[in-house]
Each structure stands twice: as structure tokens, then as C-alpha cells.
Please model this.
Amino acid sequence: MTAQQTELQDLPPGLKRELLPKHVAVIMDGNGRWAKRQGKPRIMGHKAGVDALKDLLRCCKDWGIQALTAYAFSTENWKRPQEEVDFLMTLFQRVLRQELREMVKENVQIRFVGNLQALPPVLQAEISRSMAETQDNRSIRFTVATNYGGRQEIIQACRAIADQVKQGLLQPNEIDEELFERHLYTAGISDPDLLIRTSGEMRLSNFLLWQMAYGEIYITDALWPDFDRTEFHRALCAYQQRERRFGSV
Ligand code: FPP
Model:
């Protein structure tokens, strides 16, 4: 990577660098509807969704946003038709294989969070490889939530902590927010400052339930494959207008 490539780009008009979110999370909704509008099968929407995600990752890196987290597959998404689930698993695997070299070159650190053991073994292998090869990269932290559910994440943290109490390694009064966070899938990753959800849905849908306690939420009617730099600029301008009080006055 040349020194030039690591330089941040100028921000588009109206954005202040000091007010940028450090961590942006996205719920990439509307791939199926996008495809339907184009008269294409749903899976074409997911393919277009990957391109939108790649563009957003590059944009975050160019503008100096330190972390991006994307909700790629929820624990509820297994209920989709089998052929769509199979397509998504193969797509994740293919994208990882194709993009790993570029991520290494661009100094991107990729991490996966969720119940990864339930994913197809070939995908698990691709995930392990990509995480190992990019673990020391620092230009941006890219987290992909796959087979992720916020409630399940909290339950598995409770179980792990309860187990330590049972073994006498921990006293109940030692359980605090910091300790709890260390048992979440996202341990070591800062909470998102901004969550963007596309296609107009106004729900968290079991995404980052603990981590979004104080995060700002931005909803756009744009469908995920249409979410481009202009849309992202709009979201960041709206975010910079917000007054974040974290419970104070
Ligand atoms: C939601 O749209 C989208 C998904 C469930 C899949 C998103 C996954 C990607 C874009 C691929 C990411 C890949 C990697 C490797 C990070 P929807 O199907 O719910 O759309 P609809 O609401 O219009 O039906």
C-alpha cells in the first residue's frame, strides 16, 4: 500500500471531520425488493448488495471512519427459502475468497461475530483464514454479523458468566457493564455511534441490542443496493445535526 492510498480524502461539503462517527453499523435491508423492482430474482439483489457494501467500506476508509459493522445474516434468516439461504452462504464464501487479497492490501481488519459454529464448515474455514490474515490491519475494522442475534448474544454471555460464578471464579457483585461486554461477541469493538437502516423499516431486528443503548439511528427509504456515497453523506449530515447527551441534560 502506498503512502498516498493511506491518506484520507477531503470530506464532502457540510461534514465536519471532528464530528464523524467513529463506528457505523448498517442493516442492509431491501435487497429482495430492489431485485423485484428490476424484474430479477431476489438473489440478484444480494449480489448488488455486496457491491454496495464494498463501496461503503471503501468510503468509510477514505473519509476516516474507524469501524464499520454490517448485519449480513441474522439467526432468523435461516427461515428463508432453502435455496436463498444456500445462495447467501455460498456468496459469503465467494466474496471472502475474492476480496481477501484486496482487504490485506488495503489494511482492512475483518472480523465475524455471531454463532459461527452453525455455519457451513467451508465458510467457517474461509472466515478463520480471513480473520487470521487481517488481524493486525488497522486502516479500518470491518465486522460482519453472521448468524447473529442480539438476544442470543446476551444469553451466551450470561451463560459464560454464570458458569464462572458456579465455579467460584467470580462473585455476583463483580458483574458490571465492563465485565459483561467482555463476554459479548463484540468484545473489544467500540459501540456504534450511528446505525443506518435502509428500506424504511424502523426496527432494530435483534441487531446489537446491548451495543445500541446510546447509538443514533438513521433510517432511509433507499433500498440497500442503492445506498451510495450520496446517501451516506446525507446520513452523516443528519448524524452531525444530532445532539448526543448520553442521558445527561
Ligand atoms: C436483507 O435484504 C439482506 C440480507 C439478508 C443479506 C445481506 C447480505 C449481503 C449484502 C452480503 C454481505 C456479504 C459479505 C461477505 C459481508 P432482504 O433480502 O431482507 O430484502 P427485502 O427486505 O427487500 O426482502
The longest strand covers residues 140-148.
